Amino acid sequence: MAPDRRKMIVDAATKSFSLFGFKATTMDQVAKLANVGKGTIYTFFKNKEELFEEIISSMVKEMIAEADAAIQPGLPITENVHHALYRLLEFRSKHQLMIKLVQEEAEMGTLAVSEMLQHVENEIIAYLKNKLEIAIEKGSIPRMNTELTSFLLLKMYIALVSDWERNHEPLSSGQIAEVMKVFLLKGLQG
User: Fold this and answer.
1) Which of 40, 88, 134, 187 could pair with 36 as two cysteines, CB 3.0-4.6 Å apart?
2) Where does the record place the HTH tetR-type domain (predicted)?
3) Which domains are delineated in the chain?
4) What does the pLDDT read at residue 187?
């Protein structure tokens, strides 16, 4: 059976982006890691940016699958939102490519990386928005601006998980859930 060259290229590029970041990755490196000629890459992808987009899109699908796996039917929306956000941020903090991209954006401000991280954030917000809209349709929560609420949920969660830890003792998952309920999610229960 012939090797799947496209998959080999995507895997090699993911490895290269994870190790060296977007800016330092070259198509020559990807070709070498994939054990293909550089021209082979261009039969599948126009440029490095298109290859990067493909990888980020796959990663977003993985993140959403993780969040969906954390949701438990029958639990209140407050708990399911917490479980989904926790799983998303856990993925983000343990996935080598995400770690490298966040680091590269902070250190170099690479435009392509900033745009992709914004894309990831937008996808998470859209995911949360969809879950809130389903809960509204079921009558579980009152009508609201679901996009704004999703944005606030994500930003608050990131602040509690990441920003808080810079100067304070890390919060447990239970403490984060309680803060989220008190400040934001209690309002969802009407």
Assistant:
1) 40
2) 3-63
3) 1-45 (1.10.10.60), 54-188 (1.10.357)
4) 56
Q: What is the DSSP letter of 74?
A: T
Q: How far is CA 34 from CA 1, 10, 85, 98, 142, in A?
A: 17, 8, 34, 21, 51
The span from the CA of 130 to the CA of 164, in Å, is 28
Annotate 12-60 with DSSP letters as a single string: HHHHHHHHHHHHH--HHHHHHHHTS-HHHHHHH-SSHHHHHHHHHHHHH
Task: Identify the burial level of 4 via C-beta atoms within 10 angstroms of its C-beta, where 0-12 means exposed, 13-18 middle and 19 or more buried.
Answer: exposed
- CA nearest neighbour of 76 among 138, 146, 14, 32: 138
Tokens of 129: 């928005």
Amino acid at 67: A
Chain CA centroid to CA 104, Å:
16
pTM assigned to the model: 0.82
Place of tokens 């054990």: 35
Instruction: Please tell me the predicted confidence (pLDDT) of residue 148.
Output: 94
Question: How many angstroms separate the CA atoms of 16 and 31, rounded?
Answer: 10
Cα–Cα distance measured from residue 134 to residue 78, given in angstroms and rounded to the nearest whole number: 13
- Choose among 62, 145, 59: nearest CA to 100: 59
